Amino acid sequence: MTLPLSKTIVAAYRGFGLLLIGRADAADCYDHSRRGLWLSFAASLAIMLPYILVPSPIDRDALRKHFVLLLAAWLPSLLVQSFVAAAFKATTGYRSYVIFFNWSQVVVLSIFTILELAFNAGFLPAVVLSWVGDINTAVILIFVFHAARLSLGISALGAICMGLADMAVSKILLAILGRMF
Predict the structure, then answer these.
(1) Would you give the DSSP letter of residue 99?
(2) Which one of 22, 107, 122, 172 has the largest count of C-beta atoms within 10 Å of its C-beta?
(3) What CA–CA distance (Å, rounded) separates 178 from 69?
(4) Burial, 110: exposed, middle or buried (Cβ in 10 Å; 0-12, 13-18, 19+)?
């Protein structure tokens, strides 16, 4: 499936929603070709840029640091998840899994960016923004579970391990790198 970029982005949001509720037809929303894989990487990288470009009361150095931390946790997380998939003998659909995972970053970070802008403009109380992190963690775990089940044909235990691997690698790397900066 080769769509113009705008339709690809809309399809990715639709696919994200369908994957969250475990619908197998979510796979139809994504381009599973080599082009689709690279586009998912480019889109994930592009959505991280607002952390540098969006006006915020937080200083620019802090935003740049956050961007580096997001980037540093993203690729190692995918690498560790590839080992988890291999341990469960479920590597055939890994390209599709990476495409799902990358587009999920686009969806989640774009929603978070919009919420952060609303907070910075005074439209959201701080307590709402603080809940977003917890909700984000739950959404990503559910998404990874369904994405792994659909793309890799992995067992429920394997899908849970994929989600936990993502969370563990991200949390560990963010903690280590956060101390370095």
Answers:
(1) H
(2) 107
(3) 7
(4) middle
**Residue 24: CB partners within 8 Å, gap ≥ 6?**
150
Buried residues in 121-151 as b, exposed as e (16+ CB within 10 A): eeeeeeeeeeebeeeeeebbbebbbbbbbbb
Structural contact between residues 106 and 14, judged by C-beta atoms closer than 8 angstroms: no
User: What six digits make up the tokens of 141?
Assistant: 């775990």
pLDDT in tens, 25-65: 999 999 999 988 898 888 887 776 766 665 555 555 665 66
Check: CB of residue 77 under 8 Å from CB of residue 140: no
* Phi and psi, residue 2, nearest 5°: -115, 115
Burial class from Cβ neighbours inside 10 Å (0-12, 13-18, 19+) for residue 93 reads: buried
Closest CA to 36 of 10, 75, 3: 3
Cα distance between residue 126 and residue 157, in whole Å: 36
